[in-house]
Amino acid sequence: MSEIDKLSDKEERRQIDELREILVGENAEQLAALKQRIEDIESRTRDVSEVLAPAIRQADSSKLVASLQAPFALTLKQAIRSEPQEYAEILYPVMAPSIARAISQAISSMLVTINRTVESATSVEGIKTRIQSMRTGIPYGELALRQSLLYRVEHVYLIDRDSGMQIYQITAPDTESLDGDAVSAMASAIQSFVRDSFSQDRSAMLTDFKVGDHNVWVAHGPKTMLACVILGDAPESLKGELYTALYKIRTDYALPIADFDGSADQFDGVECILQPLMQSRLKDNQSGENRSSRRNSIPFIIIGLVLLYFAYQWFTHNNKLSTVEYFLRQTPGIAATDIYWKSGKLVVEGLKDPDAKAPYGVLEAYDVDRDVLEFRTIPFRSLEVDMELQRFRNELTLPRGVYLSVRNEVIYLYGEAPILWLNSNDARIRQLAADGRLTISELSASLESVSDLLRTSFSKSDLKDMRMTSNARGELIVLEIGGTFEASKLALLSALFAGSRWVMVTAKERAKGGDDSISNQSDSSAP
Amino acid sequence: MVGDFSVGKTSLTQRFVNNVFSDKYLTTIGVKIDTAIVGDDKLIVWDVAGRDSLSPINASYLVGASGVILVADGSRSNTASGLLEIWQMVRKRIGSVPVVVALNKVDLDGWQIDDHSRAILDQQGWDVFATSAKDGKNVEAVFNKLVEKMNSKDS
User: Is pLDDT at B130 greater than 90 in this prediction?
Assistant: First the structure.
């Protein structure tokens, strides 16, 4: 820049100053004072302090809150950080009861969770859930939680605590609407009643109560409370959600709550906070109910099966007992006085012939095992016909041509028996006959066996002199000896048939003499 | 609804809300709440348990009230004079709210509210009605008056 230009600028400035002096000459002092006032910080601070309080009062509340929120929060944080102890002491009376309540709530919630977990883990449903968890890979807790969601939130009321008036209400669809105002007022009244009547601690609150199938849970804030009407049993975690919602409402609607006059106009959007509380999981609920009813019916099914099992056992036991009783009664030689089950054994008490045979074969056909039967019997001799018959068969070893039979309860031994067998069993047979246990009227010796015996003892010539005939009743063989018989042969003949009731020997020659016939008096009267 | 015991607070409320009356006396425990529509307004009626010598009125039920109906039994003059004391308590708890007075049981013989007693009530600036829950006399008038006063206060 040249010297000439510089001079020109100075001249220009001087002219402007002169012009300014002409225009604002009288106000210059005021302007200077104003300038000084603006530039002087102390003065400005004094001015602001005078207008601050009225300005805050007149300001738009919402805008003011929005403006102050951040600096206040920052200030509060810094203040608490710098003097935590002091703030802790100030807040203690307010916070302590809330913290105690929160802890108590958490413990209560935890206990309920533990109870449910134990219950679900030990139940049939719990085991099924665990298997399902392993199969699908979904955590067990999540599956168990799904099953425990057997509730439906039907109404949520936001209530002004001071007046007991309803601020806002949400009702689940398809739910009978209640008079929200009356419910809110009643909830508030009950709260007052409980606080005044039951509790020493004025800060204690009624947090839940039950009305029929409905549970009413109440979350308390300083100015408002949230009442939640729930059908069924909701998980404890919902209480936490209630308090979270209430806290958010307190934060977002602090001014409308403070200025509440019965109108919900200033609570636009509160529904968005309340809506998540309307937990209605109908599908889960229904399936849950089905599961629940199935789970509830399981004990009855088990009891039914147990009863059925016992009924079946009783029936089969009784049936076996009747079967055994029936067949033992048919069995000769066994007289059962009592039959009963004991320690899995069918005990038979009474009398039993040692020769009697228990009808194991038949009983096994009726599913009564041989090992099941236990005889606690006293031995005895049975005179039943069948037993006698069996006993005679065993004892007498009947030869061919001899039979035992029963007619009119009388045992007959009959037929033509070998003379040797008759001789050897003679005493026993006669004894039985004498006792009346055996009838031998139709028993006789066979001619053939007598003939055979004679052939072995005598020569053919001797035999020519012998003649055998049966008596009129066919019970006695008459052996007639003719010709001349030596004394030695007569003695032999006598030895063969002496005392026999089956064969009678007569001698013709001697008969003529009248005193030498070989006969036995008893034989003549024989059987 | 506040007043001494057995003056007919519940009967007045039931007559107004449900238009029913019963001779049977059932004491109110705590508070009973009903709602009724009066014109464009919804009234939430807190029928507070009556006062007696042993139990004062539970003031916590008064908090948030927009108006009060003081109820006395016209056949028991002491219940009318007791209204002054009750009102002191109410005002102390919730401030000056609109108030009307119902002197109930006007249908009974033995009305004991004389001119002097009535004058004392009138001096308070209260609107006083002789009511009968039994035949419904002045019942609606009491409630309507209260609503009217509450609305005029709001405006």
Answer: yes
